[in-house]
UniProtKB/TrEMBL annotation:
InterPro entries: AB_hydrolase_fold (IPR029058), Peptidase_S37 (IPR008761). The lineage of its organism: Bacteria, Pseudomonadati, Bacteroidota, Bacteroidia, Bacteroidales. Keywords: Hydrolase, Protease, Signal. GO terms for biological process: proteolysis. This is PS-10 peptidase S37. The keyword Lipid metabolism does not apply. Gene3D superfamilies: alpha/beta hydrolase. It comes from the Bacteria.
Length: 431
């Protein structure tokens, strides 16, 4: 018995010493992360841009107003510079997989030498609840997610906070600031639309005026030509879809037509030079290859990996429609109205109405308040049609539009004078 007691005492001493050594081997940040009760798992990541980087899994309520409804794990990536540095919270609108890369660093974190907390959006990739109950995918819940993450990390990073995101992530940064105006000191939404309907109505007239008449004619001529050649191109298009395993909720000819209608939006969105558009006399294979390159039919597949985005667009974030008038003679569809619901939404949500509450709330917030915000847009990006470029005479809200820019517009792509102005504003606000 005495020997057993001696062995137990020795084992206990060894365990305590091992725990002490293990704890001392942890960095200050790891120890601080270990004290956040909502974090259930932490994994170290490689980084050539930060001194420490971790992916964590954060427990969030499905419905922040009713925690009893259940919870899910949200992926949050922590990239560390210093406890005394400002912190950028990236309000990603989609998945976070690309942020795991060792070389990844968001623009503001690089410009300001700031810590980076990257939050994967709910219902995307590893932050998808099971079962996938669509009723909890709301803008308010996503803002509540960000608020919970910010509150958990504020004691670790007590300095200034900047919220930023690109495209749908920019929308998320905007709605986050609306729901929680005091959570962050600065917001920088990139190419963020503020749409008023499931088919907003401002994108189609924008595309009729964008850039030059010559560029617009070249685009429309290409669209008309691939529609005129539908007899020979459609079988090849269908063969491509079959080989890729693409499944749709509409006949293949309609998908062909929608790919043609989407073409002009997609080309301007990503800034593809019109010089790359084949001549209308080009061979069939060349025309089809270009169409597939710019406006691939995989955008319209049933059960899309980005179905969560389409649900949010139809529910409250808004989207765009198509102008079918120039092409009516060659289209198999009578009207494109309602295409988002018919083609891209989960079957059980195809009749979901659009709720204007969010857009009205954001618009009211921007008109009645003047938070420190910088908006970045591209002049030729169709999403700019629904941008907040109407905001005028504000001391703190600044809108920059890159001349000839696309959806890739960033602070670094602005003309030198505007880039300098934006960076000086940020540094001034951080003082």
């Amino acid at each position: 018995m005495k020997n057993l007691r001696s062995c137990y005492a020795a084992f206990l001493l060894f365990a305590l010493l091992s725990a002490s050594v293990s704890l001392s081997a942890q960095t200050d940040l790891q120890q601080k992360l270990g004290k956040i009760s909502a974090i259930t798992e932490t994994q170290s990541l490689e980084s050539s841009r930060f001194s420490e980087k971790y992916v964590t899994y954060f427990t969030q309520p499905l419905d922040h107003r009713h925690p009893e409804k259940g919870s899910f794990r949200q992926r949050v990536i922590i990239s560390h510079v210093g406890f005394d540095r400002p912190t950028v919270i990236v309000t990603e609108g989609y998945g976070a997989a690309y942020a795991l890369h060792p070389k990844y660093r968001e623009e503001l974190s690089r410009l300001l030498d700031a810590n980076m907390i990257f939050v994967e959006h709910r219902y995307f990739l590893e932050s998808t609840p099971e079962p996938k109950d669509w009723q909890y995918l709301t803008a308010e819940n996503s803002a509540d997610d960000l608020h919970a993450v910010r509150n958990a990390f504020k004691s670790i990073y007590p300095g200034k906070w900047i919220a930023t995101g690109i495209s749908k992530g920019g929308q998320t940064a905007l709605l986050y600031r609306t729901f929680y105006p005091d959570d962050v000191d600065i917001s920088v939404p990139y190419v963020a639309p503020l749409c008023y309907a499931a088919e907003d109505g401002r994108h189609e007239p924008f595309l009729q005026k964008v850039s030059t008449a010559e560029a617009r004619k070249k685009i429309e001529d290409f669209q008309l030509e691939v529609l005129k050649r539908k007899g020979t191109l459609l079988p090849r298009f269908e063969k491509y879809c079959t080989e890729k395993g693409l499944k749709f909720r509409a006949p293949i000819e309609e998908i062909y037509d929608y790919s043609v209608l989407e073409y002009s939006f997609a080309l301007w969105q990503w800034g593809t030079p019109t010089s790359t558009i084949p001549a209308v006399t080009a061979p069939d294979d060349e025309l089809l290859a270009h169409l597939l390159d710019i406006s691939n039919p995989d955008y319209f597949i049933a059960d899309s990996p980005t179905a969560s985005f389409f649900v949010q667009a139809a529910r409250e974030l808004g989207y765009y429609g198509y102008d079918t008038k120039p092409f009516k003679k060659y289209l198999s569809i009578r009207s494109s109205k309602g295409y988002l619901h018919r083609l891209m939404l989960p079957e059980e949500l195809k009749d979901m109405p659009f709720d204007k509450t969010l857009s009205r709330k954001i618009t009211k917030f921007l008109k009645e308040n003047d938070p420190k915000m910088i908006f970045i847009y591209g002049e030729n990006d169709p999403w700019t049609a629904a941008g907040v470029t109407w905001l005028k005479e504000k001391k703190n809200i600044h809108v920059f539009v890159e001349p000839g820019g696309s959806h890739k517009a960033r602070i670094s792509t602005l003309p030198e004078a505007e880039k300098k102005e934006a960076i000086e504003l940020l540094n001034q606000w951080l003082k």
